[in-house]
Amino acid sequence: MAMKKFKPVTPTLRFKQIVSSEGITEQKPYKPLTKGIKRSSGRNHRGVITVRRRGGGHKKLYRMIDFKRSWAGSAVVETIEYDPNRTARIALVKLDNGKRAYILAPEGIKVGSIIQSGSDSSLSVGNTLPLRDIPQNTEIYNIELKPGKGGQVARSAGCGAELLAKDGRYVQVRMPSGEIRRILEDCTATIGKVSNSEHLNVVSGSAGRSRWLGKRPSVRGVVMNPVDHPLGGGEGKTAGGRHPVSPWGKCAKGKKTRNNKATDNMIVRRRTKKRAK
After folding, report:
1. pLDDT in tens, 93-152
2. What is the pLDDT of residues 145-189, one digit of tens each?
3. How far apart are CA 139 and CA 160, in angstroms?
4. Is 183 helix (H, G, I), strand (E, B) or coil?
């Protein structure tokens, strides 16, 4: 997909660039596979804001995506569609039994393409197989962490992982973050990488477009008062004077926050920082 740029006839359009709708074949979703969704606006079950800077935005219909791909056999891609709930494109497929399902569209898939699911599937882009049946050094996405639960890893635009090695009942997978992790060979994954890889080049250009997407304004800590933020206060403009932190003093960059000892033994190598040259 290509990026769409605009003539700088206004300050808003000067730097704005979005992903073009090239390749999208249907504007309206398949209604039986949609449902209304209540927006949380960053609040938990008690109504307390746990994720800041979210709220408002345009109303959305949720598309029910089949992350499990539990059906065996083949299906035909009918449409490629935009999904407002995720960065990736989605594809409507028609199964052998006449039913339809939404899946995450891989890079390079087109209307009329045949995709398959099951251990007998060929090693083509968009086909879902158990990890035991996928060769080494294959790019995969929509990876399960527990057999039958559905894909949980590598689902956003342009993401892809790599199957590195097979070790008994487990396989080693390099995650999009660079971490190498062991996953049960009974889990499934889809061959290829997620579509819409140009999403990372999007420049909103205007505050209004961000609000349509449900993104609220972000105020820097250094411009606040000391009572509101650890970086606030000072005479005139100041640089903060300490490492970036949250309003509650927690390190915002670099500090490890993972605390899941139950799966520590599944991590072969953690992500390493790239040193600046």
Report:
1. 999 999 999 999 999 999 999 999 999 999 999 999 999 999 999 999 999 999 999 999
2. 999 999 999 999 999 999 999 988 999 999 999 999 999 999 999
3. 6
4. strand
Please provide the DSSP assignment of 212-257 as one string. HTTBPP---GGGS-TTT-TT---SSS---SS--B-TTS-B-SS---
In the three-class reduction of DSSP (H, G, I as helix; E, B as strand; rest coil), residue 138 is classed as strand
For residue 144, the number of C-alpha atoms closer than 13 Å in the C-beta half-sphere is 23
What number of helices (H) and strands (E) belong to the chain?
2, 15
CA 174 to CA 185: how far, in whole Å?
Answer: 14
Task: Show the domains of the chain with their CATH numbers.
Answer: 3-199 (2.40.50.140)
Longest dimension (CA), the chain: 71
Residue 255 has pLDDT above 90, yes or no: no
Give the torsion through C-alpha atoms of 245, 250, 255, 260, to 10 deg: -150
User: pTM here?
Assistant: 0.89
